Amino acid sequence: MLALSRKKGEAIVINNNIEVTVLEVKGDQVKIGISAPREVPVYRKEVYAQIQQANEDAVNVEGMEALQNLLS
Question: For the chain (length 72 residues), average pLDDT per consecutive 10?
Answer without folding.
Answer: 95 97 96 97 95 83 74 80
